[in-house]
């Protein structure tokens, strides 16, 4: 297990399964205190906690102004967002990975 990840709930490092009241690891949620959508990636090395800023979701993925728009926008672009987390880990980032606007380059506009 790398220092970047945590073992899966109920895995060999955790003799007891996750509590029944805990939300599923795949469930993304809005964390208002940090103004981010938080989520967990399942990688071969284990689980990786990550989040994406409200600004990145609005400016790079077109989320609306209302906070309830953020989680659906995350789900609509989940593959790209999760790929950015993996990219940051390969660059040497440590979990939890926080994604910002700079992690999603703006495509060049045509002439």
From TrEMBL:
Region (Disordered), start-end ranges: 1-26
Organism superkingdom: Bacteria
Identification of the protein by name: DUF1488 family protein
